[in-house]
Structures are given as structure tokens and as C-alpha cells.
Amino acid sequence: MTFEKNTDLYMTIYSLQILHIRGISIPDTVQKSVLDLLHWYEMSNDIRYIEIAALQLKALAHMGLMRECDAEIYKKVALLAGWTEEECKYGFIQKQIKINKTQIRSMIKKWRLSI
Asked: What average pLDDT does this structure show over 56-69?
């Protein structure tokens, strides 16, 4: 992911971080914003509203804040935006796996006590 290629995404992430700094819920705000953008798209048929909604959802997914309740909205925007299957996989909530202590310990290397 290069900066030049994703300037809009990074600017959106930055603006969403300002919401967090002000104590405003990012996922709730994005959900309301995307719903409004979808409504405006349905009224005007202007694809730019979908592009902005898609950008906001990509930023939300990039920040790791996508929620299960956002999945239907995400699917609708992805369909309207014409995303590829690979682009869609990026933001969808993946199936959670159960992991036990042994598996966690095997992923974490042993620390050296002496430096």
C-alpha cells in the first residue's frame, strides 16, 4: 500500500481519528454517515456518494473497527461500488477462531532473560 495511491484513505483515517480524540464513537459515526450517503445516492443516483461511503468503510476496516452489525451495510456498498471479491474480503469480519493457551505460547517466542 503506497501513500500516493491511498492518499484519500489515509486522510479519511486521520479525520476519523479526530473523532476518537474528541470522544466520539468512530464506528457509530461512520455507520450513520454511510446510511446517509446511501440515502443520498438513492435520491440522486450520484455514484460519488457510494465512493465516499466505500472510502469510509475501507478506513473503518483498515483501523480494525468493523463490527458485525456493519456487515450488511458493507455488503450493500461493496455491491454498489463494484468491488472485486478480494476487495470485499479485506473489510468483512472474518470467522473467529478459538485458541488455547498452548497455541498462544507457540506463537510467542521465549524471551531471553540475559541481554
From this structure: 82
